[in-house]
Specification:
7-stranded parallel beta sheet; about 250 residues; globular; Rossmann fold
């Protein structure tokens, strides 16, 4: 299938590693150009070198800082002259229970998980031409709470509601907005959570035992779905919350 991504331009936040990087790899392989945003400049430069500087560009960015989203969007337009969409990924908030999580952690996570992506989406929507696409990386916690991830359980469902609202608001501009709900994908973040839960290998085996496909997903499997959702091939898809979890979530 031709996804129609040749020379399209996409911002990918959290683009230096994990799900963001995997999505950038698929977009570039499909002929798109990507503007990667991340806080770690060294890792960002390494990712750009791997993807190829003719198809990728890195902007060191901390999206918890108001105004950073405008600078990111401005840099993307200055570099490539257009914007066709974005993958809005910010990584996961700290693990912990409700009772052990401090107010400071809640506030910091709200800036990172909620306000950062929201501000970036607003900046993109005011810049993109009609027909663009935004995809928010959420979590399966948007539908079912995950034990030990209370901050994610609290914030992701709210952001999924924003995705639905924003899809309605931007539909007259033919800008599509969707949410992606990854489950257990084999990223650094998932391995860190497994290590926190006990011995990494045994924690992984326990998790895999309740996944119908009986394994963790590969980041590229997530990136392939994300690239499709951002592409013209998904031109009638908006306001959707799409699980990418091997069948793990049992909710409808």
């Amino acid at each position: 299938m031709d996804l129609g991504l040749t020379d399209r331009v996409f911002v990918v936040t959290g683009g230096s590693r994990g799900l963001g990087r995997a999505t950038a790899e698929v977009l570039v392989a499909e002929g798109a150009k990507v503007v990667l945003a991340a806080r770690d400049a060294d890792q960002l430069n390494a990712t750009v070198a791997s993807l190829g500087p003719e198809r990728s560009f890195g902007v060191p960015t901390d999206l918890t800082v108001p105004g950073a989203e405008e600078r990111l969007v401005g840099a993307a337009v200055a570099r490539y002259g257009r914007l066709d969409g974005a993958l809005l990924s910010c990584g996961g908030p700290p693990a912990g229970t409700v009772l052990e999580t401090s107010d400071d952690i809640w506030r910091s996570a709200f800036e990172s998980v909620f306000l950062g992506p929201l501000r970036t989406a607003r900046a993109l929507a005011s810049t993109m031409d009609d027909g663009g696409a935004l995809a928010f990386v959420l979590s399966s916690s948007a539908r079912e709470p995950i034990a030990g991830l209370s901050v994610s359980n609290g914030l992701r469902p709210g952001l999924s509601g924003v995705v639905k609202d924003l899809a309605d608001e931007l539909a007259p501009q033919a800008i599509r907005v969707n949410g992606l709900l990854p489950g257990r994908i084999n990223t650094d973040r998932t391995r860190e959570l497994d290590a926190k839960a006990g011995r990494g290998d045994s924690a992984r085996r326990r998790q895999e035992s309740v996944i119908p496909l009986a394994r963790y997903g590969d980041p590229i499997e997530f990136g392939t779905v994300a690239a499709f959702v951002l592409s013209a091939a998904a031109s009638y898809l908006t306001g959707a919350l799409i699980p990418i979890d091997g069948g793990a979530r049992r909710s409808l």
